[in-house]
Amino acid sequence: MTIAAIASNVAVDDPVDEEIAGYLDIAAPRSFFLFAGAGSGKTRSLAKALNHIRERHGRALALRGQRVGVITYTNAACDEINRRVEFHPLFYVSTIHSFAWELIRGFHNDIREWLRDDLTKDIEQLKQEEAKGRQGTKASIARQSRIASKTKRLDRLDTIRSFAYNPSGENGEPNSLNHSEVIAICSTFIAEKPLMRWILTGRFPFLLIDESQDTNKHLIDALFVVAKEHEGRFGLGLIGDVMQRIYADGKERIEAELPPSWGKPSKKLNHRCPKRVVRLINKVRQPVDTHLQEARSDALDGHVRMFIRPTVATGQQETEDAIRLQMAKLTEDEQWQDRDACKILTLEHHMAARRLGFDTLFAPLYEIDGWRTGLLDGTLPSVRFFTQVILPLVNAQQSGDKFTVAHIMRSESPLLAPQALKNAQDPVQQLRQTQSAVDALMQLWDDGEPTCEVVLRCVGEHNLFELPDALQPVWELLKCGNDDSSVADAEDPVAPEIAALLAAMKAPFREIDLYRRYVSGEASFDTHQGVKGLEFERVMVIINDAEARGFMFGYGKLLGEKAPTASDIKNKQEGRDSSIDRTRRLFYVTCSRAEKSLAVVVYAENPAVVKKHVVDSGWFHEEEIDAEY
């Protein structure tokens, strides 16, 4: 066989890039959705599209003072795209939060009025709940704290001349916006203010969004309004794959809502996975849509194996180590024996949290629907306060890094705020008070590892840092003590969000760093979010319903071990996500990371049923399954 024959399909997607170039015409831009499945080289296509714009329209855009907007999901993705376009100033490449802030940052009066309206509605809602509740209960204390905190912020609004936002750090100053507010404000302004839509299209005649299926649905809906209203002078390019939607606030059925006038190019080739893995993921997604992929002609055949083991309470580590040894022999790849040379993926965050040791912190917070995205990407304010402010201070103090300690205190602590130093009768005494507060915090470790609750209590008592609004009611409840709930408390329980935070604060403080390492991709285990866009030679996927403990996913249902629930059936009938849909997507994402070989480890209550189901479904051949009963 000749080299040309081996590589015969490598250029199969070249016409897609040419099609996209046709949409990127400054005289007649056209919006499009590019389907780009796992390993399809979407970053390469995006870079080619940007370079096409620069070559054909760069001078005209520069003369108009216009740029091309590119939204990606992570800072690492921004860096990669900027590198591929040689950091050309024509392109504004940013994450979604940074892009949203770039649009709204000059509209301080409008931001103030949005906040005024939002805070007023929240306060009124809380007052109504307080009027219906019981006085003196923990729920009442929490509500009054939230009312006081929001009222304080509302009263400050007219004193704020300009608002601030830091997309990569904590936003604790009185004039700061948090991450979710920036997205909400930007989405509202685009959807409701024609002037904002004109400003957007005037600055960015082309806006390309990578991972569009996971971009906030409210912002996507607002951009749909822009594309429709400014058709012919603005081009919105969405790049993504609905089977890889993993965040709850992403837009469901995005492809189904595309206007007829949009282009819908589709890439077919998978450049990443070996042929056997491509056949597997095609089978996994086949019940969902028709976007099946081809492996490269010159791709490896690769290896896939499913190991089915009975559900057990302990011993998973030993089981998985033994499976890695089997994979080393099977694939003739000794690196399977090295745990660090393999990527071990769990399909559910509870599994990773329990195995890595931060489940006490993570589990209660993950139960709150509206917090999941922020918890998983590290932007949830209540936890970010610990990871971005308290933890760095503790680490710096323990390592003797006085420079970092001083920097954190000057930038974050109200004790060393310019106004506090100005008002202090004795600045030296103010500095001593600050050092005393830091010492009090560090003394918590003298008797062992403190809990997050104890740390938070110390921070609040010494006014070491200003607490985020989300933690204010928790602090008020901690000051009241942890007495057993009364009858009144049972009749008027605290809000689920407050209860979740109170439970999370029981976690040892060490879990903060374990959680931080997990969401930043530094931990030994990873999940579908952590590996978005990445690839690994050896992948082990671990499936265990008993460990997952989540209602969001159902591996037993996907693998035929359990029947769909009435809720699953209803969701399917109404066109909404079911636990089976979510689980299928996660399985697809994790399996499609493999470049050479893939091991799927399933802990099942009924291994025989699982084996029969995956064979009947065509996912695995009988000889590719190692089952123990």
Summarize the structure.
The protein is α/β, with parallel strands linked by helices. It has 4 domains: 9-104 and 181-270, Rossmann fold (3-Layer(aba) Sandwich), CATH 3.40.50; 113-162; 275-348 and 527-627, 3-Layer(aba) Sandwich (Rossmann fold); 360-518, no CATH class. Helix content is 51%, strand content 10%.
Explain this structure to me?
- With 629 residues, the chain is α/β, with parallel strands linked by helices.
- It folds into 4 domains: 9-104 and 181-270, P-loop containing nucleotide triphosphate hydrolases (Rossmann fold, 3-Layer(aba) Sandwich), CATH 3.40.50; 113-162; 275-348 and 527-627, 3-Layer(aba) Sandwich (Rossmann fold), CATH 3.40.50; 360-518, no CATH class.
- The protein is built from 29 helices and 13 strands.
- Strands 10-9-11-12-8-13 form a 6-stranded parallel beta sheet, with helices on both faces.
- The two termini are 45 Å apart.
- The relative contact order is 0.13.
- The mean pLDDT is 90.
| CATH homologous superfamily annotation of the largest domain | P-loop containing nucleotide triphosphate hydrolases
Main CATH class of the largest domain = Alpha Beta
Estimated helix fraction: 40-55%
Which structural class matches the secondary elements? alpha/beta
Let me know the average pLDDT. Answer: 90
CATH topology of the largest domain: the name is Rossmann fold
Q: How does the major sheet shape up?
A: 6 strands, parallel
- The CATH level-2 architecture of the largest domain is identified as 3-Layer(aba) Sandwich
Q: How many helices?
A: 29
Low-confidence stretches: none
* Rg from alpha-carbon coordinates: 27 Å
Number of distinct beta strands: 13
